[in-house]
Design a protein that fits this description.
Blueprint (H helix, E strand, L loop, with lengths): L2 E11 L4 E6 L4 H4 L5 E3 L10 E10 L2 E6 L5 H5 L5 E5 L20 E4 L2 E11 L4 E7 L6 E6 L5 E5 L4 E4 L9
Amino acid sequence: MGQVVVGTVRRAHGMKGQLLVHPETDDPEGVYEVGRVFAVSDAPEGRVSQLTLSSAGWSAKGWRLGFAEIGDRDAAESFAGCTLEVAEEELAALRENEFFLHDLVGLDVEGPEGSVGRVDWVFDRPGQPVLVVVDDRGDRETERLIPFTAAIIQSVDIEAGIVRIDPPPGLLDP
């Protein structure tokens, strides 16, 4: 089991060192529990790579998180753009047919006409995640953005390594 990104720091919030965080989880109340320790794999030089949550609250712009290791706005500002991670085993168990978005990376994507490419990465957009699918089988590499919606994604089989899609007209056009 590895680390799972559960938040992206947008910016500092207030003068006491809180961070405004965009949640990368569908269970922020369960993940942003006071006392939890988060890894910061991309921590700024000279800053700690683990943060202990001391306060959490929701605002219209995102989650306001306070950490024991960050005491002022200057320190908080240096974490802008960093990601917060926890060990996968610390998260709630997945139910049947659930998976983490990072589990999709590397899967083959198949449409009605055959292979479309493989999932290179996934970014979580407001509304739904988007698969970045790369096809490097020709003269040049092609990148397509495929919204992860029920209307397009027919099935995900993590074990078989396949995402089956039914794209609307024009989605796969070069």
